Structure formats: structure tokens, C-alpha cells
What does this fold into?
Amino acid sequence: MTALLLVDIQYDFLPGGALEVKQGDKVIPVANKLVNKFELVVATQDWHPENHGSFASNHANKKPLDVIDLYGLEQILWPDHCVQETNGAQIAKDLNTKPVEAIFRKGMEPEIDTYSGFFDNGHKKDTGLDAYLKSKKVDKVFIVGLAADFCVKETATDAIDLGYQTIVVQDGTYAVQGQEGFDKTKKELREKGVEFKHSDELT
Ligand code: VGL
Ligand code: ZN
It folds into this structure.
């Protein structure tokens, strides 16, 4: 069984959002083209409390993109984003979520960030996504969403480590760090065995 994972297609990651990914809106038509081609579609949603430790605003004298030690883990600080119940945290309305069977929220614990849809950044807690996919006999996942160099990257890394054949849809993801961030991520993921395919190559 093959699943499509839609990662963090939320307003705060789209152009104009709090943590915008340039051209991030372009993933929406790609996702919409694909959702009806998969038997199983699941989504993730970055869903932070206001006091989240990844927000620069919650640390004295810090600004976005500063790096700190957050309870033992290196943490890049971000602008406040995807705050629970705000518009920025909503999944984009232009995304066709009708075929989405389940949405896995992540990043609720203030003390630790969660880029991957599977585990927090310390790999201590599991979101339940792996058990869910395994219960549906999924052995192959395609990934679309934002951002290529953070949440898509970590979701793909965990997916391959968990034994799924993992394919990132090349034209279905953009990086916060632009083309350079995308190319670096692609190289690192390919070294781990993650494949990249253009959405036109998927039947
Ligand atoms: C993300 C940074 C912080 C992402 C989420 O979805 O890639 N990036 N939170
Ligand atoms: Zn976040």
C-alpha cells in the first residue's frame, strides 16, 4: 500500500505567512493533482502553543534564526508561527483535504520542536503516524509539502529509517532556505536512499 503524506501545508508557511516559504503556494496545485491518485492520504499540521520554545519571542535577546540549546538539543529559533487556533496554523483552504483520512498534529510540547511527522526532534515521542501507516499496510510513501529543508526533510529521513520506500515529490516542496537549501536537502536525502520524482512521473 502506498500513501501520500501532505506535510504542513499551512498559511504560515505560504507566501505572506509568519514563516513563509517562497513559492510555497506552488505545492498546493501539485498536491491537489495527486490526492485522488492515492488510496491513502494523510496530513501533518504544525500546531504550537504560544509559549513554544522554538519561538525567538520566548527567549530574551534572541531573534529568528539565532541558534540556542533547547533542553539539550540545538534549536533554530523561528518567528511565532502555527500558533494553535490561529489562521496561520490552518491548513490552506485551497488544498483539497476531502481525501485526507487523518491529520497528525505536532509541536504541541513547549520544550521540544517536532519537524518530522513521525517523532519529535529528540526522537523521544512518537506522533502515532508510523503505527497508523503500518496498520494500513503502507510500505511506500510519497511526500509533498513544506518546508523541504525542515519538516519534509525530517519526515523523509524518519520514513526511510522506519523502513518505508520514500519518495519526495520534487516539484511538490520548496525550502525556507531557497534553492540552495533545497539542493543540499536533496543531496542529503538521496544519500540516505530517499528518491525524488516529479509529479508528472507519478501515474
Ligand atoms: C517547519 C520550521 C519550524 C516546517 C515547522 O514545517 O518545515 N519549519 N516549524
Ligand atoms: Zn514549527
